[in-house]
């Protein structure tokens, strides 16, 4: 009987050690998978924003070519872009995004445009944009230098407990 009890105690100890080892391994794997999922979300957002920016620049160049010998070029360009890309101008960005000045300090120097699913269809990138929410992406164009374009994700992307909204900040954070 004493042998059986010693055997049972040894089995219980071995079982407890195995449970602890499996728990440690499971915790490590879970943390690793969580980091992979977070990185994937960040990369998806950056890819979406880069796609929007590059397509916008392409459309902008095409319209510049069309308007090469035209008066009121900037006004006509804006109207053509709004029409072709199904963009809608945001008159007061602070109503759309309350803390815009925190991530775009010179925000008053930009014009802002809401995107929609129709925008992505016009850009032919609707299949590239993942997990889109209505009015999620905003195109910000510097009014004094229209080559300065910023893409804003109004939902924000969380990296290490900090939320980032602009493509440039996301790229900066992911390149560190």
Write the SSE topology.
Layout: H1 2-66, H2 73-85, E1 88-90, H3 93-96, H4 100-103, E2 110-114, H5 117-123, E3 137-142, E4 149-159, E5 162-166, H6 167-174
Antiparallel strand pairs: 1-2, 2-3, 3-4, 4-5
Helix pairs in contact: 1-2, 1-6
Separation of termini? 64 Å
- Could you estimate the helical fraction of the residues in percent? 55-70%
**Uncertain residue segments:** none
What portion of residues belong to β-strands? 15-25%
SSE ordering: HHEHHEHEEEH
Radius of gyration: 26 Å
User: Major sheet, described briefly?
Assistant: 5 strands, antiparallel
Overall pLDDT confidence: 81
Overall tally of domains? 1
Number of strands: 5
What's the overall geometry? elongated
Query: Total number of helical segments?
Result: 6
**Sequence of strands across the biggest β-sheet:** 1-2-3-4-5
Strand-pairing-aware structural class = alpha+beta
Describe it for me?
- This protein is of the alpha+beta class and 176 residues long.
- The protein has one domain (2-174).
- It contains six helices and five strands, in the order H-H-E-H-H-E-H-E-E-E-H.
- It has helices at 2-66, 73-85, 93-96, 100-103, 117-123, 167-174, and strands spanning 88-90, 110-114, 137-142, 149-159, 162-166.
- Strands 1-2-3-4-5 form a five-stranded antiparallel beta sheet.
- A hairpin with a 6-residue loop joins strand 3 (137-142) and strand 4 (149-159).
- Helix 1 (2-66) crosses helix 2.
- The chain starts with a helix and ends with a helix.
- The relative contact order is 0.13.
């Amino acid at each position: 009987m004493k042998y059986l009890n010693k055997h049972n105690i040894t089995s219980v100890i071995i079982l407890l050690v195995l449970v602890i080892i499996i728990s440690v391994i499971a915790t490590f794997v879970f943390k690793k998978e969580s980091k992979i999922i977070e990185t994937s979300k960040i990369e998806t957002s950056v890819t979406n924003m880069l796609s929007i920016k590059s397509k916008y620049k392409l459309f902008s160049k095409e319209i510049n070519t069309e308007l090469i010998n035209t008066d009121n070029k900037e006004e006509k360009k804006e109207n053509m872009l709004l029409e072709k890309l199904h963009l809608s101008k945001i008159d007061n960005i602070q109503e759309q995004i309350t803390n815009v000045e925190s991530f775009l300090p010179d925000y008053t120097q930009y014009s802002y445009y809401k995107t929609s699913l129709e925008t992505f269809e016009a850009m032919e990138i609707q299949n590239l944009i993942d997990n889109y929410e209505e009015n999620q992406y905003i195109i910000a164009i510097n009014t004094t230098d229209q080559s300065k374009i910023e893409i804003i994700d109004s939902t924000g992307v969380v990296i290490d407990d900090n939320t980032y909204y602009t493509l440039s900040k996301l790229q900066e954070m992911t390149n560190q």
